[in-house]
Specification:
The protein is α/β, with parallel strands linked by helices and 373 residues long. It has six helices and twelve strands.
């Protein structure tokens, strides 16, 4: 018995160690058994696959539709592991509510992320969630910001959040954060609609010198298109920003159609707009709609940022627009960008039009996270 006792003790200690290792392996991604899925995971080609965490949460441009499709393309065609997160009420886990701006579960996934994609609008997340975003950015890892990410956060003026400086309109004591996350990290905050919203589209023109980055591989003038209009930006963009795609504002040829996913606009529309809805001259210089730059948070490491104000869910119906975003992922991860990346849509993809939806829409629809798989 004296000889057996040490063996039993060793076996118990080994079992405890194994249990600990099992329970601590990516604990941030543990979802309760038999409970609704609160996020989606698309596996990579192997255990060494780069991990991309995509954060949806906007009221207008259907990021909850766009990011799962982008994740599927990256996973199936290029072998990346992708985790997609969604806005949802705390007491209704697994049910998407894009209008609810105070909760995006699963941000713990950023602790194992190699790249972060942000497609949020005016979020005011609790500090315990914001900390994951802040820690990630301080690590200097690459970031992609889509459409409303320029104004992705908005804390009330009387907020006691430690991260209130992320707000799109921040003008406080932390002067380096003027313009919030959008300005400091991506290079711009919310300015205006340069074109006429729902009436003038974006035709992408390749900027001079953009081909040196590889991001425009397989992309020519006009291949990138979006029914989402051109956003205004402050020119020149800050620091070492480099324009990649410039947005030519295009007039709609056909009739305005409220029921159409593109509101009657088409990639074939040929008339270049010279004025917006207010009759203001759109100017001779085209606004960048995609650019890259470096970023660095105070006390953080230097990183790379890719920003695109094209990227609404219906924009992803366009092959060139999908290729732009896929190329941007490769660029962010310092991987060789394919000459012509496979961006074939995966599964059925029928995005809805961009629009604001009333508060009662989401509770009534009961759209589950799992429905986007």
């Amino acid at each position: 018995m004296k000889n057996v006792l040490p063996i039993v003790i060793c076996l118990i200690l080994f079992a405890c160690k194994e249990q600990k290792n099992t329970s601590t392996k990516e604990p941030e991604m543990a979802q309760e058994v038999n409970s609704p899925k609160k996020w989606l995971t698309y596996e990579g080609a192997d255990e060494n696959a780069k991990h991309i965490v995509m954060i949806s949460g906007d009221e207008e441009y259907r990021s909850e539709e766009a990011l799962p499709q982008l994740a599927k393309i990256l996973s199936k065609h290029h072998g990346f592991k992708c985790t997609v997160l969604f806005a949802q009420e705390e007491d209704k886990p697994g049910i998407v509510n894009a209008n609810y701006n105070k909760n995006i579960p699963g941000l713990e996934a950023l602790t194992s992320a190699d790249m972060m994609v942000v497609f949020t609008r005016f979020r005011a997340l609790p500090d315990n969630q914001m900390k994951y975003i802040d820690d990630y950015l301080k690590s200097g890892k690459p970031v992609m910001g889509l459409r409303t990410a320029t104004h992705g956060f908005n804390f009330p003026e009387d907020s006691d959040s430690q991260y209130a400086h992320y707000s799109f309109n921040y003008k406080g004591d932390k002067t380096e954060w003027d313009g919030g996350f959008g300005r400091l990290v991506l290079g711009e905050t919310w300015i205006n609609h340069h074109g006429h919203h729902k009436h003038q589209s974006t035709k992408g023109m390749v900027a001079i010198g953009a081909n040196t980055t590889g991001i425009t591989n397989g992309i020519s003038d006009g291949d990138v298109w979006g029914a989402s209009d051109v956003y205004g930006v402050t020119l020149p963009l800050p620091g070492d920003s480099q324009p990649i795609i410039l947005g030519q504002v295009m007039n709609r040829k056909g009739e305005y159609d409220e029921s159409d996913v593109f509101y009657g606009m088409r990639p074939t529309d040929e008339e270049i707009a010279t004025t917006n809805k207010d009759g203001e001259n759109l100017g001779d210089e085209l606004m960048p709609v995609t650019w890259v730059k470096s970023y660095q948070l105070p006390e953080g490491k230097k990183g790379k940022a890719f920003a695109s104000t094209v990227g609404a869910a219906n924009d992803l119906l366009i092959e060139g627009t999908r290729r732009l975003l896929v190329n941007g992922i490769f660029w962010g991860l310092d991987l060789k960008i394919p000459e012509k990346a496979d961006v074939t849509l995966v599964g059925d993809y029928n995005p809805t039009k961009f629009e604001f939806r009333k508060a009662e829409y989401w509770p009534a629809k009961q759209v589950s996270v799992e429905s986007f798989e």
